[in-house]
Amino acid sequence: MIERTSPITIGVTLAILALLIGMPAERTHDATAVVNFLVPFFTVVGIFAIVAIGLNVQWGYTGIFNFGVAGFFMVGAYTAALFVKEPSDSDFVQYVGGYGDKLDLLPFLDSEQWLPALIGIIAAAAFSAAIALVLAVPLLRLREDYLAIVTIGIAEVLRRVVIEERGLVNGTRGLTGIPRPMSGWVDSADYKYVILVAVIVALVVSYVAVEGAARSPWGRVLRGVREDEEATAACGKSVIGYKMQSFVFGAALMGAGGAIYAYQQGAISPDAFTHFFGTFVVWTMLMVGGSGNNLGAVLGAFIVWGFWSITLQLQGYDIPDGLRTRMFYLRDMIIGALIIIVLLLRPRGLLPERRRVSRWLERRVARMRRQEQREAAGRVAAGDSG
């Protein structure tokens, strides 16, 4: 039996979460302060939703245990930053790349405001996908538990490379002054709206692309691999080949999300890409929202990041010092409790995967049912007239 969540349950959950997120509004009564909080909040939610959709391609549709999300997220962020920044001109700040002054390839349409950033996103997605392709050859033959362990290790190796190789991406100092796309079109105070719109567009593109792919024959093969690899192979499909495609596609989305995150932050460092922040939180979003459902990934990103933000807002209230100093530990506990509650009450998430065979077959069945209903209605009408 397919588990479904009542729209009322989802509505009540979102209403309570929105009320908690808006608590500072009741305290400050300052609409500007609320907007200044909510716009960056939804921007980060959109970025994490893109990354969660990428994980959904790997785990939700194909069953690949990728616990190295932070690695691809970090690679995307650093790749985009290295592409759009100017060349390094200081011994204190050392990094490779720095092509920002060479990426204005169109002498019209004010391309210097958006083209370098777009190239950076494409490069981030491509480089993350290339790393995933190289890793997929040996990794995807491993059993699920071993695959999870190895991907954690790979993410940590990538992070250690970033930290130790100072001439590569400036080591622990990180990269600052990352150019923000379209920042020259508006005042700095209004730029948050521009980046929010850009994130929404990127999220919609990602959602439509993955949703279309998932409903295609390619997506049905992925679900077949997830459910029964031997049966899928018996149908003449290359299980490893489809796993590789899914792994690479998901990593590309994670890299693109990392690129947008770098633009939104304006500065990045290795400390921002820990396993907890870059992997565990994203997995929580997908588990809470519902794996195998892209809309569930977006919903999970909103709910989890909402609870994450609520704990930080509580520091603005008059609470005991003992609780204030332990707020970061309380945040981790709340996220852990959220996972337990969802697993106990909704193991498949708030928006579980909708089982479907194919759009063509569903339309065919719907037409047949409508035809049967019309014929039955016609027989009833004929009986009444007789």
**Extended strand count:** 0
- Which sheet architecture does the biggest sheet show? none
**Low-pLDDT runs:** none
Helical stretch tally:
16
End-to-end separation = 43 Å
Give the strand content.
under 5%
Shape: globular
The Rg value, from CA coordinates, equals: 24 Å
Name the assembly state. single chain
Secondary structure category:
mainly alpha
Listing every helix as H and every strand as E from the N terminus to the C terminus, the arrangement reads HHHHHHHHHHHHHHHH
Mean pLDDT: 87
Portion of residues in helices? over 70%
Descriptive account of the structure:
It contains 16 helices and no strands. By secondary structure, the protein is mainly alpha-helical. The protein has a domain of 270 residues. Helix 12 packs across helix 13. It is globular, with a radius of gyration of 24 Å. The mean pLDDT is 87.
Protein topology:
Blueprint: H1 7-21, H2 23-28, H3 31-61, H4 69-84, H5 115-139, H6 144-164, H7 166-169, H8 191-214, H9 217-227, H10 229-234, H11 239-265, H12 275-289, H13 294-313, H14 321-325, H15 327-345, H16 359-385
